[in-house]
């Protein structure tokens, strides 16, 4: 018996996976944004591409990706399902699109409602539209206790901070006047998307820890709050709240000239407002969003004010870091 007679193609499906799309719809100063991660798979009369090496029935996965961008530009941003349904009647009988938002993208009103004490952008007409992903950021604290000089001279060094605070703003960010040489291909922009996953640490001035009553039980809880109860002059919870609030407010409100410049302003404010903080370190990946060239459907998506569909670039990303220390 021949090889062919022993088996048959019982099911086939192909397409593009992990098509990441960022979409923005501007209504004046109001920006609706959403980020999708799309799987777009086709089924239908495609058997011969497998069984007879006949490519005439194949819509290239590259084209499927381009169609996905088009659908995202046409559909209501908040409802990826409507995009999937719109795609269905295209050329192939069955299309499966799984789209989900990459994290929880909130518009500014929703963000403020969820975090009333969080960011404030100065009213409905403010230029900055801040989005942050709810609930993913974590507070971190590291404690170094040095008891080598004896139990009466115990010194603690405490560093606290925030990691994974994912933020994005869709206006109020430019990047211009940087070095141009033979290696420069990046265009200057006076309006861009600025997104980063904030990693912040701040160090307190070292302080003396009261000698423990029971020497075997010198336990410092790794939350800043508990530390304040072992005789420190500061309240770790209050500083943590202030640091987060300053970070979000400066990020939202700064007319950013660069990630570097915004970082510096955030750090300066934390030091100015928190007397026990000695130094502040931010590490900010610059998560790039590149406008899709949509000339293939006659749409100008490259002029900054008209760009609605962007590809979020996972890697490489910029990585901007600095420590700002009290004088
Ligand atoms: O804010 C920025 N800082 C940079 O150093 C940089 N480099 C780059 O390519 N884009 C940006 N953006």
Automatic annotation (TrEMBL):
Predominant cellular place of this UniProt entry's protein: other
Coiled-coil portions: none
Keywords: Oxidoreductase, Peroxisome, Purine metabolism
Protein name in the entry: Uricase
Entry annotated with the keyword Oxidoreductase: yes
UniProt family annotation: Belongs to the uricase family.
EC number(s) recorded for this UniProt protein: 1.7.3.3
Gene Ontology cellular-component annotations: peroxisome
Sequence positions that bind 5-hydroxyisourate: 61-62, 175, 192, 259-260, 286
Organism: Grifola frondosa (Maitake)
Pathway(s) the chain acts in: Purine metabolism; urate degradation; (S)-allantoin from urate: step 1/3
Residue numbers binding urate: 61-62, 175, 192, 259-260, 286
GO biological process: purine nucleobase catabolic process; urate catabolic process
């Amino acid at each position: 018996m021949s090889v062919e007679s022993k088996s048959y193609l019982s099911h086939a499906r192909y397409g593009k996976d992990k098509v990441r799309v960022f979409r923005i719809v501007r209504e004046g100063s109001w920006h609706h944004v959403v980020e999708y991660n799309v799987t777009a798979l086709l089924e239908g009369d495609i058997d011969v591409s497998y069984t007879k090496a006949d490519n005439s029935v194949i819509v290239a996965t590259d084209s499927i990706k381009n169609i996905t961008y088009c659908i995202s530009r046409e559909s209501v941003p908040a409802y990826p399902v409507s995009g999937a349904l719109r795609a269905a009647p295209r050329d192939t009988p069955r299309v499966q699109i799984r789209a989900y938002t990459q994290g929880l993208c909130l518009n500014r009103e929703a963000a403020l409602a969820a975090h009333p004490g969080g960011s404030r952008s100065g009213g409905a007409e403010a230029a900055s539209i801040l989005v942050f992903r709810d609930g993913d950021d974590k507070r971190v604290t590291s404690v170094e206790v040095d008891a080598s000089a004896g139990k009466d001279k115990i010194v603690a060094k405490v560093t606290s901070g925030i990691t994974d605070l994912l933020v994005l703003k869709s206006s109020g960010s430019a990047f211009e006047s940087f070095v141009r040489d033979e290696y420069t291909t990046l265009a200057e922009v006076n309006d861009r998307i600025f997104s980063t996953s904030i990693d912040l640490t701040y160090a307190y001035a070292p302080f003396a820890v009261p000698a423990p009553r029971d020497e075997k039980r010198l336990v410092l809880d790794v939350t800043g709050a508990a530390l304040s109860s072992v005789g420190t002059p500061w309240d770790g919870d209050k500083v943590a709240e202030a640091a987060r609030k300053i970070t979000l407010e400066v990020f939202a409100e700064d007319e950013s000239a660069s990630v570097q410049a915004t970082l510096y302003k955030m750090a300066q404010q934390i030091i100015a407002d928190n007397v026990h903080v000695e130094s502040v370190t931010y590490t900010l990946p610059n998560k790039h969003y590149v406008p899709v060239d949509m000339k293939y459907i006659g749409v100008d998506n490259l002029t900054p004010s008209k760009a609605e569909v962007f590809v979020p670039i996972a890697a490489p990303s910029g990585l901007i870091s600095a420590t700002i220390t009290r004088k």
